[in-house]
Amino acid sequence: MILVHLDLKGAPPKVSYLAEVFPLFSALGANGLLIEYEDTFPYYEELLPLRAAHAYRPQEIREILRLAQVNHLEVIPLIQTYGHMEFVLKHKEFSPLREVLMYPNSLNPHKEESHRLLHVMIRQVLELHPGVRWLHIGSDEVYFLGEGEESKKYLSENGLTVEDLFMCHLKKVAAHVVSSYPGVKPIAWDDMLRGASAQTLKESGVAELVEPMIWDYTSNLEVDNRVALIEKYSQCGFQKIWLASAFKGATGACQQLTQIEHHLENHRRWLQVIQRIPNNTIQGVAITGWQRYDHFSVLCELLPVGIPSLAVCLQTLKNGSYTEQVATSVQDILGMSHLDTENFSSEASGSFPGSDVLRLITQVIFLLKTQTQEFLEKNQFVTGWFSAFHRKRKMVHPIMVQQIEPEAVSLLSSWTSVLGDLHAALLKIFPAVTVEEWIEENSLPYLQLQELVQDLNTTMENQT
């Protein structure tokens, strides 16, 4: 199976946009979706605090599932059940369930209330996802595990390791899924399992319940290391194993344009891994597209921005390599005259859904930000005759206004035009809260330019 990961904890696309891109995903070679809802799921009753104001409504979830089915995309929902629980544990109602009371990252596995919380979350999600064959129960990056007072006591009294503690909780969650929802197989991220010995893994009983998903998003992925890890998991009794690559959201928390070559190389190396292991070992590959590094971080590349990278990655997996013929096919599907994988893809616009967003964000990041910073920091008239010192004291030589003002006003006009177009384009795809966040995070040079022009006008008024 080839899954496209939708990380909805930031910039959740409107259903109307998903209706446009699902056929594209399918045409490019995907046959499934890994959907990570986080706070965009319509939790209810005691879980209502988890539900963001811009969360999908139940009927929208049903429509997403219908659209996925029509486009032959099998859906696997993902629920965090151990680490990355910030969207739950940040709320005062659930803060007593933190592993370390100061931090909302990880769940305390010793409290009965913790397991009841997870059972209700799982029930509500699966109610809206009838007939799914897999449920991804997260479990990656369980920071501060074993550092809570109850965990310290438990580990000390029982002579156990942090890996033991992790697997005990993972087994409880997985066993609940298997016993309560026959036919549903749990998947879990594998990073917290990697340090455990083969003996510990075998004795834990986890292999009978869970299919691990090995994730590695690096361009210099160590093929031998990953082959050895897969062999270790197989020897420990895991019947099927998943792999996870990335098409965006893995090269910087505030990255705004996708480095396609990085992700292409990541997939080339995963293909080398796949070629060296038995055919029946791998259940599938999830191509992740992270939208935030965690619940509290900024937005990274928006989905429309990452679509050329996703197309390259899907076609590389489907064809086993990225040849000139595959590149031409990708360009044709995306409606792009040229796709440069070594630099940023966005130098040529396309006709795929959201291509206008890619074009406009490229203008902001590549052109406007660069030109504005160059003007504010290196223009000799700005830095030499209208510095912070001059602006504070409302001092400027009138002749210098003629050197500064035309370029400043021209740049400001360009910003206003592009941001206006981008705002409208983003609103077609994302909720208003997402649009507001992206614009605010990425328009600081515009605001600085506005302030400079205002200071220039005020200074001239004071001197006349």
Proportion of beta-strand residues: 5-15%
The count of strands amounts to 8
CATH topology of the largest domain: TIM Barrel
Order of helices and strands: EHEHEHHEHHEHEHEHEHHHHHHHH
Largest sheet, spatial ordering of strands: 3-2-1-8-7-6-5-4
Structural features, described:
The chain starts with a strand and ends with a helix. By secondary structure, it is an alpha/beta fold. The chain has an eight-stranded parallel β-sheet. It has helices at 15-28, 58-70, 86-89, 112-127, 149-158, 162-180, 198-204, 223-235, 260-275, 303-319, 324-334, 355-378, 380-385, 388-392, 398-427, 432-442, 444-463; strands spanning 2-7, 32-36, 74-78, 134-136, 185-189, 211-215, 241-248, 282-289. It is built from 17 helices and eight strands. Helix content is 51%, strand content 10%. The protein folds into two domains: 2-343, TIM Barrel (Alpha-Beta Barrel); 358-463. Helix 12 packs antiparallel against helix 15, helix 15 (398-427) runs antiparallel to helix 16 (432-442) and helix 15 packs antiparallel against helix 17 (444-463).
SSE inventory with pairings:
Elements: E1 2-7, H1 15-28, E2 32-36, H2 58-70, E3 74-78, H3 86-89, H4 112-127, E4 134-136, H5 149-158, H6 162-180, E5 185-189, H7 198-204, E6 211-215, H8 223-235, E7 241-248, H9 260-275, E8 282-289, H10 303-319, H11 324-334, H12 355-378, H13 380-385, H14 388-392, H15 398-427, H16 432-442, H17 444-463
Parallel strand pairs: 1-2, 1-8, 2-3, 4-5, 5-6, 6-7, 7-8
Helix pairs in contact: 1-2, 8-9, 9-10, 10-11, 12-15, 12-17, 15-16, 15-17
